User: Which sequence fits this backbone?
């Protein structure tokens, strides 16, 4: 299989730091060093027995799975490209599959290679500090009696499944590799419900300040949420089509009684997509509401300015008028001038206030 | 069937209060305690006889339905998980069906399991106090000679159907379980017309204040209405596909002469969706109209401010000018100064008013 | 057939005044009393003969149509439910058809019941006083040798067709019931062109004031037009699918040479829908244009205010400055103070005007 | 064939001036008298010979086309309905075809009548004076050995094709009537590229003033362009489907080697539609950009007003303050009062300017 | 083949400078003279041998490719139309293919002519100076044992492929012409990732100034980015369909084991389109955010103006009031008048400030 690797002519190094004009003959990963050392865990089980083992490298004997047994290989970390190469060699995987495992910029995908099915999914993590979602790529290879899972780094997401396998009469122990793959996918998609909930809560947080007290930070939050939702869609939307394919797949690797389980996951992913779609519409509407709110506020500011100005500018004019130094201003020298003027001013102010009351500005 | 339940490994507890990492082996409901005690009603009927009975638990004899009879089981409340388990055991339902019944976050769904058809619908209730729609999940299981209805809580929605069954020669009595299921679905969907009407009325209420007197509360109402409509769509939109499947379904459980009835419901749900779609477009347009109205109002405010300022600021300047204390200001000591100035001021004000009249600001 | 009516359990009374929990066994109409008495007109014709007759009720002999003859029954008014019941009984119509005829909230629909085809269309009337479109439901039942037309009220829309039938060698006389149904549908759809024209003219009327002189009434008109167009779409859009079905229909009731005629109507309805679609986009754009126009106007107002304020506020300050009563202000007692100050003021005003000219505000 | 015309019962007279309730039996045109006299040109050609002839009326011998010859009939003007009737009679055209030729409100259409194919296209003319597009309807009837072209008025659009036919060994001379029809359609669609270019140029013209100096005329231009583009789409969009049908058509009238030519036209029309679609999105965005620009400008105006007001209003207050006539104002009689006040004023102005600098308003 | 060229009647010269009414019989290019002289490079290889040669013209012997060899012809520059003609003659290409090669306004296209497959793609170049994307058309003709590449000008894009061919045991050397075509398409599409990255970076650059400090240049950048993205879509979107056709193509020219490679490219182009789609939505939202930001800023300006005006206008009025020259103003002559007035003014200012604090304007 060395040939496959030597002849790999692909060059998709989205991060500019990776050279585009790379010479053929080497698999490269774009993973930032999330995990220093790749960890390999091998879990063998059948109805009667169960064994879990940590190994350092992929042995040639990896394909020798006991009769009737299921082998589940978990590889955490993709920086040690050699280990992925070895997996590729031992399980006879296509060079494009290896390339996709190593490139973490994949969108979710499903490919049936006959002997094995290759699935790429995205686990979504909410990073509270950065206030955005991080994605982690999980590749699943489903063979006749084995499942290989390759993750960017170690995580506890699949621990409940290991716990269930340990239980001697657990359903996982009684069923095939396809059921194991199903539980893995199911747990990743259940994870998306939490994602959906976080978005929903963010929307509710913003809503509170949206209409009553819109701030520049509110706008910032809406925009960030909009971007996050678009990013989410990229990771979640294609999963629907993948599960649909699994549900209808006529591959021998998936037994007939599994279809109802995949149909169930399909409903879940459909529901999540539906909610995200709703959220996107809500967020889009928020921008309009924000703008309207801001305009509302400006209206209030303008009203105050206009009321004050409209009342006092004419009064100031009158005051200024009788501050003129003309010699022959009869009003000034009249003893009734001053009290009449005060009366006039009160009347003007009164009329203005009435006008504003009629206009419902006060 | 205990095994099915023991092996249920699903964990979709959208409310965070429910633990995600739940050990397998127990069905859980996310229902908030709407009903303390689950109520079970069993209605048996055929052309000649009719019997209604309240029971406390699902007996093993529940499947012994008399020959030619139809059994309709109404279960109100899903907090007593054991009862749902018993139903699952007696009627041999798939564990995924039981899970869906207990999880009230389902979107409407239709599934044909061969022996029975599983339908989930949402009843919509307008909560006047909270000013929003509440949904209640209604699960319907249609078997050969039985219909099981599971609701979150007791309600009167199906009482008219019970009344009709009581009538000896009523059409329901003459037809099969499929016709009973049809009447149940029909009554739920008829309910949606009321929902549609409430939205329509809300739109009309908002419209009145939208253009003439837009307030910050108007904006609030539009936004809330928009969100409600999106929520409604989530509950109503998928129903169309469900009815379409029922209409075309080749299941033995649905007799051929039922298709025309389901086609009729399909028309209803199509009409409701159409109206809701229209409402959504109207509401979207409302935000634009609101913004335009606010701008209109601001224009009016600005006009008042500008008219007052533009007339009086120059006049004030002139008044201030002749309030200066320079020694040699010939106008001031002239006897014609004062009357000429008054004339000038009147002219300036007059010209300004003319200008505003030409601009149609007054 | 009384049974069908007795067993009608449907309850879709959108107007709240009609009780929802209605007991089964009676057909109800939601028609407001547009016509007090239902009028029935029976037109019989073949190549040689022609007969027109007004009757008061549906006789049992209504189905006895002479050999080779076509019978066209026009029923105006649906408040006398018994007459519709009788039609249902005599022509053996499904109870759902009768229900649809009586409920005027139908969207346009097409249903092939084998023996007869049931079509519901909407006639659109422009009500000048209310300034909106009124719809009138027209139900058409096409049988082998008869066409039944049920309208909400009497109208002259089909009079030209009657005129044509009177002409002995008119094409209608030579062809079957399907051709008669075609002419009826054609005349209803031709009517939509007038609707389209009214919308087009309304748009042009609004356009004139849209950019040059946007008023709050303009906004009102745009919004009303938008709503009307959405209502229109609800009545017209589904017609396309109906005509498409008629065009492809393999029913025996429609002869092959009719397909080219229905294809022609299909083109018409396609053209109308296309125009309405265009109108909707134009109207949507109008709201944006309106808002921009309003902002433009506000800009103009602001400019006037700013020019006046910016010129006179500094001048007023200077005037106020030399209106101060300090004892030792050398400028005031200087003989050059006053003329120099006037010069300064003219210069400031001049510079300001230059500034505004450069900014193109004047 | 007189019968067809006598029995024509259609009444689609979109211009209200034409009576809707027209009696059957006469073909009417809605063409405004663009051409007083209809001009008929007959071009006959085969590999060896070529003949061009102007005639005044359609003779009965029009169908006698020499063996192996192609006859191309160009009819300019549709006001003389009799000539169209004669064409219909001689070439045995369906009455609906004649009606469509005479009604210039057609959308583009394609219809295969077996013996002949009927195509309606729109030629687009840019009217510089009216600043909008005019459409002209061109009907093409393709028979086995003839092509009939009916235009609303004489034009030079097809002259290059006549020139090419004159060349003895030109490709047109060597191929059939289908190739002639292809060249006609090709030249009409090539015409659309000019239309596309005019729209593109209009967009670029508007763009220049859009952001830097938005005027009310800019808004006017954007709106007009939007309307024009919508009108264009109505004429151009359906052409895609027409060409698609021609490309796949299994009619005997179109030989197999023509398909690659129609595929080529299909690419052209696809490209034009694509560009128009892009243009529509650009124009839609322009309205938003315009509104933002206007707001930007208003911001600038507001800044000027605010800076001037905020600096001078406090200063004016101080000046007014010391213009008061109270008897015991110690500052006024103090010799340091005046210079200290000037200092205070300068400081206030300085602080204000600093504030505006920090806010980046200056 | 001269005939083909002579009979070429097409006239699509989008640049007006090229005459529309061109006489038939000559192929024309719309390429602006990017390359003065067309350069031709011929690369022959099989498993054992490799040869590269620069030639000046297409010889008649060009079709004599050694048995088992692959010939790759690179033609840089399309201004020398004769060379393209010669290629057309020697490889027997359809005249429409030659025309498409010469017209650089093509959208990407795929056409299977049986003997050869014709593909047009667009290479995208970011022109830093003009700040926009330039497109370069690359035509690929895939025959049984040859690949012809025609570019508008010389470039280094395919140099890595030449390098790989030089390696004796490189995969390219071992596989057929279809694999060579695949590597060419792959390298062009990899290029699009860089395009995607540039757009993504531009978005991030704009985002920084979007909310905090929106300027008129920000608006300019958003608008330009929107236009660029629309242009990009035109070049990239159709590629998806092309690759899809290649992936499913049943042409003999593409061997079965190539399908998995084209499926891989399909995933890439799908991912790019997806990202561009996201970018378009982000950019659309940016305009709304920009407008909201501008309104926010205006609100801030208005607040400053209103606070200053509202505090000082009443105070100025009072000052002006006591600047009046009436004879009998008791306050003025009172010794407490002045200090009390100062107190009053401080109170008014204090109340105003409190009011603004409560309104959260300060």
Assistant:
């Amino acid at each position: 299989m060395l040939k496959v690797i030597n002849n790999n002519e692909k060059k998709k190094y989205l991060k500019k730091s990776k050279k585009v004009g790379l010479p053929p003959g080497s698999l490269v990963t774009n993973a930032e060093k999330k995990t220093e050392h790749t960890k390999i865990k091998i879990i063998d089980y059948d109805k009667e027995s169960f064994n879990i083992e940590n190994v350092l490298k992929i042995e040639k004997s990896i394909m020798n799975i006991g009769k009737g047994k299921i082998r589940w290989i978990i590889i955490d970390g993709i920086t040690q490209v050699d280990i992925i190469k070895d997996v590729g060699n031992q399980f006879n995987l296509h060079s494009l599959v290896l390339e996709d495992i190593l490139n973490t910029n994949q969108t979710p995908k499903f490919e049936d290679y006959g002997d094995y099915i290759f699935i790429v999914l995205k686990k979504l993590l909410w990073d509270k500090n950065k206030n955005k979602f991080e994605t982690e790529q999980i590749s699943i290879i489903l063979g006749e009696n084995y499942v290989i899972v390759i993750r960017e780094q170690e995580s506890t997401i699949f621990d409940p499944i290991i716990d269930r396998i340990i239980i001697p009469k657990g359903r996982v122990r009684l069923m095939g590799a396809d059921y194991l793959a199903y539980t893995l996918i199911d747990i990743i998609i259940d994870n998306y419900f939490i994602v959906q909930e976080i978005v929903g809560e963010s929307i509710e947080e913003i809503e509170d300040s949206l209409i009553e007290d819109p701030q520049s930070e509110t706008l910032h939050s809406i925009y960030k949420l909009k971007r996050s939702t678009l990013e989410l869609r990229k990771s979640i939307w294609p999963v629907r089509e993948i599960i649909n394919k699994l549900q209808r797949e006529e591959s021998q690797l998936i037994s007939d009684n599994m279809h109802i389980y995949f149909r169930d996951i399909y409903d879940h992913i459909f529901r999540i997509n539906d909610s995200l779609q709703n959220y996107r519409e809500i967020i889009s509407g928020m921008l309009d509401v924000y703008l309207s709110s801001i305009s509302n506020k400006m209206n209030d500011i303008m009203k105050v300015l206009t009321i004050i100005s409209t009342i006092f500018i004419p009064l100031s004019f009158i005051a200024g008028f009788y501050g003129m130094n003309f010699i022959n201003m009869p009003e000034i020298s009249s003893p009734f001038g001053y009290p009449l003027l005060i009366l006039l001013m009160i009347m003007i102010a009164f009329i203005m206030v009435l006008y504003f009351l009629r206009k419902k500005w006060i």
Summary: The longest strand of chain C covers residues 117-127. Residues 315 and 332 of chain C are 17 Å apart (CA to CA). The domain at 2-292 of chain C is CATH 3.30.460.20 (Beta Polymerase; domain 2). Chain C touches chain D through 61 residues (CB under 8 Å).
